[in-house]
Amino acid sequence: MAKIRRLVLDILKPHQPNAVEFACYLADLTEDARFKLTVTAVDKKTENIMLEVEGSDLQFDILSDGIRKQGASIHSIDEVDVDGSPAP
Amino acid sequence: MLFANNSGLALHLNQARSIARRYLITNGFDGALTMLGLMVGFQMSADTIDLSIAINGCLGAAVALLVSGLSSAYLSETAERTKELHELEGALLIDLEGTHYGAASRAIPVLVALVNGLSPFVISLLIIAPLWLVERDLVLFPFSPFSVAISTALVLIFFLGVFLGRISNRFWLWMAIRTLLIAMITVAMIVLLEIGLGRP
User: Fold this and answer.
1) How many domains does chain A have?
2) Where are the domains of chain B?
3) Contact A17 B11 (CB under 8 A)
4) Does the interface predicted TM-score (ipTM) exceed 0.90?
5) In chain B, what percentage of residues exceed pLDDT 90?
6) Nearest by CB: A69 against B88, B92, B99
7) Structural domain boundaries, residue A22
8) Chain A touched by B1 (CB under 8 Å)
9) Going along B5-87, which residue ranges are E strands?
């Protein structure tokens, strides 16, 4: 089964929670993953962020659900690194 | 874990802290001054007024402060949060109802209303307590119970000032003296008014 090793997501989020709280919240949802968050644009009520996640087996559903619950939305999935392994 | 309260909803509820703190001071001060005013009024007629009448009057005012605090904060905060939520939904182009943001928008008015209603109520009960203790013959004060209640009110107002000083990072004693000074001015105004009306 294919395993997601790396994701780069373009996200639109409210100012609250802030970037540190947002990244820590997502990091607590996933095991063995490294997060890098970059704020790319700040608007009056929202901010755009680029979220880079690296891990051995990233669960996209859990991540996207966590992002949605914080009131943010994924604009686009910009990069994906996947390792494939043939079914036995 | 970097944050002690990193759960999704807790992150949003943290926003309510400063609002609740503000309401705690504002309405707590309201309650303390209202009771102080009542006690000063009763003290000036201490010889003629029945203790149970004074307690009932003060309890009535305390309950009114509780209901007023609960309802006013709930209504105003709900309206403010709903407006903010709709504006944010417009900016994000998504429905925030099922998110932690939406849940916090519903929970924050309740939390803030509880603080706003309970702070004057609890402070009022503490100020009324000496009257109740004397009425039930549980304590015998060397002074009039109204004087003890006035002292209790002044001590509570002093501590509200100390709390204000701590949250504003200013010298606590200066803030406490300022709040106490406001209370003393209130007492002076009531006494002067009563004397002016020929009441004592």
Assistant:
1) 1
2) 8-38+50-189
3) yes
4) no
5) 64
6) B99
7) 3-83
8) yes
9) none
